[in-house]
Amino acid sequence: MAAKKLRFRDVILSIICVVFTIEACAPAAAIGNSAVFWWLFLLVTFLMPYGFVVAELGTTYAEGAGVYEWVRDAMGRRWATREAWYYWVNYFTWLASITVLFPTTINGILGFEMPLWVEILIEMAFIWFVVWTSMQEVGDISWIMNSGAILNVVMAVGIGCLCIWYGSTHGFAEPLTPQSMMPDLTDGNALTYLSIIIYNYMGCEVIATFVDSMDNPEKDMPKAIIGGGLTIVAVYLFVSLGISTAVPHDQINLDSGIADAVAIMAGERSLPFMLVSVGFLLSLFANMISWSHGVSSVTNQAAKEGNLPRIYAKEDAKGRHAGSCVMNGICASALVLAKPLLESVGVGVFSIALSLDIVFTLAAYVPMFPAFLKLREIDPDRKRPFRVPGGRVVTRLFCWVPVVELVVSIVVACIPLNGSADELSKIPLLIGVVIVIVLGEVIRHVSYGRATTRAEILGIELPKARMGPDVDWRRPRRPRRPKSGEKDEGSCPWPASLCSEAITSSRPSARRPRPGTWASPGGALPTSVPTPSRASGPVRAWSTSVTPSSAPGFMTPMCTTSRPP
């Protein structure tokens, strides 16, 4: 039986489920009323450019690997591998941070604290239930994402209304004035708000991994990203502003801020508190499911190309990404099981896992914007169902302004900027970030080396990027004239990688290269390369033929030479 297809309604609800997370409202509310400025400022400078770029890339390059595919084709294997690694680290650390909220929320519902071993059992059950569910087809579990999106929005609007009513009847925690909504740029923590808000805006690119499950991705994806993005901003603004009016921002618990706000207004273990707590747990589950498929698709494709360990490429009998999903569960479980040890040295699992999640989420998005510009440059004639509006200047602003914001957010999040106690507390996070980056580089080198060795033994070709610096895009030199007395064996005018290695060509381009330039590896190969005629010396005419390889989706360019009479 064919898998169910996602309709437009499903696509836009998936966007909301992926991007909007109810637990993110508490950190945003902790900013205070000035969060209004940051939400709107980053809507214009980050979310809109980010959404437009994702809409163009997702509808133009729709193989199902999402951001990994875009970075690979534009910037080559190395950066694509880093993209996949950071993307994966972001997910399993987020899964671990969300998991530890489950026992905390259940303790609040029950009114007493469970033993540690019971909490760990609950956390393990949650992780592996997420792993099992995320291995199902997207179309078959779309109802979970749809339900999660609706539940998140209903809860957020309900909490926002309750907070505003409470503030108007019991007094606002912070006066709602235009002055209170403007940021205090003299505050040393002002830049940290960038990372909080940007982090809450991320996730639109996940929908690009659902293209195979969509009815009409070319039309539905751009509309869903734009419409869903605006809906998310409106809800985020409403609920975070509502919480900040009811609860002083310095009293908001980042772990359980939503439940705390409702408990203050309605009382602990009241009906609204119980409903919000249960809905909170269900929404966390839906968020995890919606992200898992996108992350698994990225790591699975990277492993198939030899850039990550082979376990990430393991698939079950139905072709589902079993290896990637299981690795998510193993690493998240390891973090949770280390909770007693980490807490004994004063490090909370939630804080360290969420901090690593934020840093590597931000880092994973940095290469996407230059990749967009590079693909525009090296693949200009490809049909783009949706194009980022504006000319050359606008597109560059749409790319480089978000990159600057991302880099600044990463620096502020993990690097101590002064000798204060708050800044020095970032040192454990910085050490963790360095360890993860170095480990990623080691895994990249080892994985590709082992994959190359295995491919040589089996006599197969590793998949290659169709574009990017793995191929020399510079203007080629003219064929060298043989010296006097030298045997003219001829030499292939194509780059060596094209003459000797198989390249992927599943997306050919009808555009013929200009004389004196190489054809795109993903494009059609010219039948001849003209060389200038000279009055003296031998003149060579080069011809090429393309023969299909035994591997599907591959072609091997074969260069031959002939000497005219």
Written description of the protein model:
With about 575 residues, the protein is mainly alpha-helical. It has 2 domains: about 10-450, Amino acid/polyamine transporter I (Up-down Bundle), CATH 1.20.1740; about 475-505 and about 540-565, no CATH class. Helices cover about 60% and strands about 5% of the residues. The chain contains 20 helices and 4 strands. It has helices spanning about 10-20, 25-30, 35-60, 65-75, 75-100, 100-110, 115-135, 140-170, 190-200, 215-245, 255-265, 270-305, 320-335, 340-345, 350-365, 370-380, 390-415, 420-425, 425-460, 495-500, and strands at about 505, 530, 540-550, 555-560. It has a 4-stranded antiparallel β-sheet with strand order 1-4-3-2. A hairpin with a 5-residue loop joins strand 3 (about 540-550) and strand 4 (about 555-560). Helix 1 packs across helix 12, helix 3 crosses helix 17 and helix 15 (about 350-365) packs antiparallel against helix 17 (about 390-415). The radius of gyration is 27 Å and the shape is globular. The protein starts with 7 loop residues before the first helix and ends with a strand. Mean pLDDT is about 75; it is low at about 465-480 and about 485-565.
The coarse overall form would be: globular
CATH level 1 class label of the largest domain: Mainly Alpha
Biggest sheet: strands side by side, in what order?
A: 1-4-3-2
Largest sheet: 4 strands, antiparallel
Distance between the termini: 63 Å
Examine the coordinates and then state which fold CATH places here, giving the name of the CATH topology of the largest domain.
Amino acid/polyamine transporter I
